[in-house]
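>> received
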Amino acid sequence: MTAKTPPAPPFRDPHLPLAKRIDDLLARLTLDEKVSFLHQFAPAVQRLGIAAFRTGQEALHGVAWMGPATVFPQAVGLGATWNTDLVRRVGEAVSKEVRAMRARDDRVGLNVWAPTVNLLRHPLWGRNEEGYSEDPKLTSAIATAYTRGLRGDHPVYWRTAPVLKHWLAHNNETDRATSSSSVRPRVLHEYDLRAFRETVEAGAVAGVMPAYNLVNGRPNHVSPYLREQLRSWTDEDLLVCSDAGAPSNLVDHEHYFATHEEATAAALLAGVDSFTDHGTDSSQIVARVQGALAQGLLTEPDIDTAVRRQLSVRFRLGEFDPHEDPHPGTAAFDTPAHRALAQEAAEQAVVLLKNDGDLLPLAPDTRIAVVGLLADECKLDWYSGTLIHRSTPLEGLYERFGAERVEFAEGVDRVRLRLADGTFLHVPTAPEAADEVRGAEGALDPALLAGRTDLPPLTADATGTEFALADWGEGVLTLRAPDGRYLSVAEDGFVRAAADQPGGWVVQETFRLEPHENGHLLRHLGTGRHVSVAADGVKVAAENASIFELIIVERGTDAVTRVAAAADAVLVVAGNDPHVNGRETEDRTTLALPPHQERLLRAARAANPHTVLALVSSYPYAVDAARLPAVLWTAHGGQAAGTALARVLAGDVSPAGRLPQTWYAADTDLPDLLDYDVLGARQTYLYFEGTPLFPFGHGLSYASFSYADLTTEVADGTLRVSCTVANTGDVTADEVAQLYTRAVEPSSVRPRRELLAHRRLTLRPGERTGVTFEVPLSAFEFWDVARGGRRLEGGAYEVLAGASSEDVRLRTTVVLDGEPPASRPAVEHGLAAADFDEQSGIAIVDRTRTEGDAVTPEGDGPGELVYRDCDFGAGTTEVTVRVAGHGTLELSLDGGPLLAVLTLAEPTPDPYTYTSLTAGVVAEGVHDVLIRLRGPLRLAHVGFSG
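>> returned
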């Protein structure tokens, strides 16, 4: 007799409701098995036939870290397309390549950590390249498109499960693991949360990743907003994955908790479901969770809640339904369609910033000089895959205009490094060495990739080697050998010409020349040590530093001048290397173009007035555009970047990218990097009152467009806006129609203008089309601190249609019904300290470790708070404040004399132990309350009675 096959357990039955399947599987797992699932690398459970699973596959603009893949433009470049359909198709292509790569390499994960929806609040943020825009509406529109592509369109099974990064208010690399972003309620709800909320509510998000930083004094990994905000936006089980090492940071760097057991329990209870810590070694997280269970800090139902969320994602990815899931057979990888899409995305990301005298497009017979450090580069960033195809601006122009019409000068300084004994640094020949590309084999953690040691170290000889020296600003140099390999330092400390590009978590290819006696010391920045020439080769060492004389063989400016003078037009390709001076772990210090590149630009412009500047960069620059006839910008455009730029220059494609963030004219226009109060500091196009170099939404075309026939209608909670757009030029081109609003007479500070909607259109010469936007009236709401909620203020609103935030072609005014402003019920509810209208010198901090806000002076000086329109009714005779720490609180009304001075002289035991202080205050009617804090005093609440 044949034994009957046992029936499949209910969790294997695809016909059962998802919740019942998860319940069944949870009931079958032991507590130890469930605890093991909490680490990023969840082990297999063989007795149940459950495979191992890992969270976290980087896929920001293509599959990253796992070897060759299609590389699309950087995220900020995708944002510059303003094209949601295009970005959805990019997400779809990336998710198909994830599936195809996983079929041959099970290290490739299906839980993708993308996109990044942090708003590009400050252009000096080192990770500017990872975000889409400074505007929450545009960011959420692009992020929603990308997540929909990543998810796929099957009603049940997801192709990949996208996780949004990085929750919350995270725009600084400086002290990123310990700094706190002070975010007032209006900024929190109107700005930072909004991009996350609208993307999550669109329904294609599997989870979020908290950021390293703190918000209002509390680490994001124990943020109550995960529960109070994020999980209230959807009925789906969202998976919250910690950032790498962040759980340990709670104790080791932030010192927020005394023990790792406390920290791990607090993070899990706050909503973290998967702990990314200690690489592939799960033992420490498992031990911490088990310790928290033993100490009564966690219960098994707490573990079940987190595991349930992870299992929900795994079920949606089809893991338990191999015969039903339509995605495992996906084989679309490096297809012609993906290559064409990469080129289309790169073309659409190009922004034409200026084009005086219609210098562009270039005529087919133009003799072109192509110069600059980026002219023959196709740069990758930390979150790129390995290039399969590669196109530089020079190669693109060779292909489009013919090599005989293009001359090239990189603009590097050609140098030799001479030692005191008269010998020079020399790169030995290594004919047997194979070419290697960093990361080509893929790595779960590319930060662990080691440098090459199979090549001979540098030596010194009588003739030496001529190096290409590039100065990337801040004194940071790279040195490249004639064979194209960069000088690099491996773990053994020897200096070799070994790297195809600068890169790595700690870049090992950058140096600094430091004046010393009659020459220079050469410091290797990755190790901090100086270069020393020894008998066994050139190495970095803590002592015996060699002194070098820098011999200039040819200055880059001379080469640029020579080729520029002989050309009809010059293209200067300037910008950044994404691994140098502005990247993850390192913010920029200035908007200025690096001095070496500025000199190259001046040399080209002096030699030839027909000079075009093409900025290829991860972020905005402040450049002197007034003396240039034409300027373009594109983010690092991926594998087809050069071809795309050449086609735009030639007029094969009319540029239609639009700036996704403000380009400021100078560093003095910027607030402090750590000032997150976009409202108070007048940041971004929403509040900036100066004159930008180029405004948000700006971008020119080879065509011209007219706008007409603006109409509006309010019905059923929606504002319907229509207009017509016509191509009045003589080439087919795209236009990005943008719709903004402005409250005419607001009762509190509102944006100068705010994006409501946009649409990218393709129009033939003479073609006219109608454009209609339907905007929910909720888009006009703001966060009213007086009521602790959103409010649509009734009154007049300008509706503005045009080609950018400043290029307004049509305007009208609509009057919306709404709620009038109301005074604060000061006696009835008092004043929550963080619900101020205005502040100066104040930081918002955590009231307790788990919830609530308080305020305190920032730094050593006093802090001031203003609470407008506080209604004391028939009168009050007493004020009571809840405070911690020690110091003095001064209270006045309407800028008048002090009415109360309350001093906490004896410090409280800790910042979370609050006490009440009371004083007499006589007031009636409506007044503005002004409070000044002196000393390290925390204020949580102000109450009035009597």
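>> The chain has a mean pLDDT of 96.
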